[in-house]
Amino acid sequence: MNARHIDDRPDEGYTPGTTHAEWGAGNPRLRITRDDERTEFALEADVVRVGSAEGNELRLADTDPVHATITHDDRDEYVLTLHGEGEMNASAGADATHPGDDSETLRTGAHFTAGPWTLVFARDEFADHGRPFGGRAGGEYSDQPLQPPRPDYDGDESR
């Protein structure tokens, strides 16, 4: 058997995978639980206000009027900003993309609390920018090949 090092493969015909899917792809959503209550909320707006105030995109009883916001930013990422008391994956300032804020970029499985509610972000793996190349198939940790540059989502007609 002839063994070949992976770096010896020809580049011809090799197309790396990417998570640069269409704008908003991957069915981004929140899975919401409280005691025995369970529901899902699709993140379809570019700004989703979470709280008890009338007019919020996601109304939850027993929370601050605007407890959190989730913003779909120009990089096709979903960013959580916690305004009320609660827990999130990254402690304040721990998210390198949002230093000093009570904010974090949401990845599949990221969770936060608002009052008695637990909310978990989900996005299909092919579109979750935190899982380049579909994660397991393309390597992990220090063995993660670079993705091609992000598309210019501002020029996307579908928005």
Secondary structure layout plus pairing:
Layout: E1 29-34, E2 37-42, E3 47-51, E4 58-59, E5 68-72, E6 78-82, E7 103-105, E8 111-114, E9 117-122
Parallel strand pairs: 3-4
Antiparallel strand pairs: 1-2, 1-9, 3-5, 5-6, 6-7, 8-9
Name of the top-level CATH class of the domain at 29-127: Mainly Beta
CATH topology of the domain at 29-127: Tumour Suppressor Smad4
Low-confidence stretches: 1-10, 91-95, 134-139
Helix/strand structural class = mainly beta
* Percentage of residues in helical conformation: under 10%
Number of strands: 9
**Count of DSSP-assigned helices:** 0
Distance between the termini: 52 Å
How would you characterize the overall build of this protein?
The chain is mainly beta. Helix content is 0%, strand content 26%. The chain has no helices and nine strands. The chain has strands at residues 29-34, 37-42, 47-51, 58-59, 68-72, 78-82, 103-105, 111-114, 117-122. Strands 4-3-5-6-7 form a five-stranded mixed sheet, with no helix packed on it. It has a four-stranded antiparallel sheet with strand order 2-1-9-8, with no helix packed on it. Strand 5 and strand 6 (78-82) form a beta hairpin. Residues 1-10, 91-95 and 134-139 have low confidence and may be disordered.
